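Milestone 3.1: sequence recovery, worked example.
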C-alpha cells in the first residue's frame, strides 16, 4: 500500500471521527434544549433561576446584612445615648471574634433565599407572563399598576412561606448581642429552627409574619415593579445596550425597594428578635404596638436608622439578583 493511500485513509478516518463527535455534541445540545423546553421545565425555570440568583446575591451581601441587623437592635427602648455606626458595629463584631463572624447566619440566609426568592421571582415571572398574554390579546401594554400588583402578590406569598428561615436568620444574627450565659450558640439554621420549635412551639416560626409579609410586599413593589417599569421605559426611550438598561433599572429599583421597605424591615427585626422576659411577657404585642412604642420611646427617625447600610445591603442584592436572573433567563430561553 502506497504512502498516499495511507494518508488518504487516515484523513478519511479523522474526518469521520470529527463528524461523529460533532453530531454527538449536537445531539446532546438538542436533548438539553428539548429538556429545557418541556412544559414542566418552562414552568419551573423562573423559580429555579430566582432561587439561584437570590443565593448568589446573599453570599455576596451577607456581611452587610449582619451589620444592618445589629444597627436596628442597638439602643432598643432608649431614645438617647451613643448612636452606633456601621463602622463601630463592624469593629465590635471583629473585636469579639473573627472576620467570619460577619457571615453568621449564612446558612439561614441561603435557606431563606432558596425558599423566599425562589417563590417571589418565580411567582412574579409567572404572573407577568399571564398579564403579558392578556395585554397582547387586548392590544395593550402591561401597565405599571399591573406590574405593581404582581410584585405585591408575589412578595406577600413568598414572605409567608419563607418566614421560618427569616426568623432563624434574625435569631442567629442577634444571638451575639446577649450576655454569654444566655446565648444559644446556634450551630446552623437547622439547629436554630429545631431549638425555636422545642422552646417556643411550631407557631413561633411565624413570629413577625405580618411585618415580614408587609415588608416583602413593599420591597417587591419597589424592586420588581420599578425594575420592570424602568427597564421598559429605558428600552423605549434610550439606545443603551441591554446590559446598561438592566444595570440602571436595577439601581433605580434598589433605591425604591430600600425606601419603601425599611420601616417594616425594622419592625420585623424587632418582633423576630424578641423573647419573653422574666414576667412571661413579650416586649411588643403586634406590628402596630411595635410601631407605637418605638415612635414614643425612640422617635420616628429610628425607623430609618441605618438607611445607608440598608441601601448598601438592598441595592447591590437587588442588582446582583436581577442581573443574575436576567442572565439565567437568557441562557435558558
Amino acid at each position: 500500500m502506497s504512502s498516499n493511500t495511507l494518508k488518504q485513509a487516515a484523513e478519511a478516518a479523522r474526518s469521520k471521527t470529527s463528524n461523529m463527535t460533532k453530531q454527538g455534541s449536537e445531539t446532546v445540545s438538542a436533548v438539553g434544549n428539548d429538556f429545557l423546553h418541556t412544559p414542566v421545565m418552562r414552568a419551573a425555570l423562573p423559580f429555579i433561576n430566582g432561587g439561584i440568583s437570590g443565593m448568589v446575591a446573599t453570599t455576596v451581601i451577607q456581611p452587610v446584612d449582619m451589620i444592618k441587623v445589629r444597627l436596628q437592635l442597638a439602643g432598643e427602648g432608649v431614645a438617647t445615648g451613643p448612636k452606633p455606626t456601621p463602622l463601630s458595629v463592624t469593629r465590635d463584631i471583629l473585636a469579639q471574634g473573627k472576620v467570619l463572624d460577619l457571615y453568621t447566619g449564612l446558612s439561614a440566609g441561603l435557606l431563606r433565599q432558596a425558599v423566599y426568592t425562589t417563590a417571589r421571582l418565580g411567582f412574579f415571572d409567572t404572573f407577568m407572563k399571564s398579564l403579558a398574554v392578556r395585554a397582547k390579546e387586548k392590544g395593550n401594554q402591561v401597565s405599571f399598576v399591573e406590574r405593581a400588583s404582581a410584585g405585591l402578590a408575589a412578595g406577600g406569598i413568598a414572605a409567608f412561606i419563607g418566614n421560618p428561615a427569616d426568623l432563624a436568620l434574625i435569631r442567629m444574627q442577634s444571638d451575639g448581642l446577649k450576655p454569654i450565659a444566655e446565648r444559644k450558640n446556634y450551630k446552623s439554621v437547622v439547629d436554630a429552627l429545631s431549638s425555636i420549635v422545642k422552646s417556643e412551639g411550631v407557631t413561633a416560626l411565624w413570629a413577625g409574619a405580618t411585618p415580614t409579609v408587609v415588608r416583602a410586599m413593599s420591597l417587591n413593589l419597589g424592586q420588581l415593579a420599578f425594575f420592570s417599569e424602568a427597564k421598559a421605559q429605558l428600552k423605549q426611550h434610550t439606545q443603551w445596550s441591554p446590559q446598561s438598561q438592566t444595570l440602571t433599572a436595577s439601581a433605580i429599583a434598589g433605591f425604591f425597594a430600600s425606601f419603601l421597605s425599611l420601616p417594616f424591615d425594622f419592625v420585623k427585626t424587632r418582633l423576630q428578635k424578641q423573647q419573653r422576659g422574666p414576667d412571661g411577657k413579650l416586649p411588643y404585642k403586634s406590628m402596630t404596638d411595635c410601631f407605637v412604642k418605638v415612635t414614643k420611646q425612640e422617635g420616628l427617625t429610628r425607623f430609618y436608622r441605618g438607611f445607608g447600610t440598608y441601601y448598601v445591603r438592598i441595592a447591590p442584592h437587588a442588582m446582583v439578583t436581577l442581573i443574575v436572573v436576567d442572565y439565567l433567563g437568557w441562557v435558558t430561553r
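The radius of gyration is 25 Å. Residues 24-29 have pLDDT under 50 and may be disordered.
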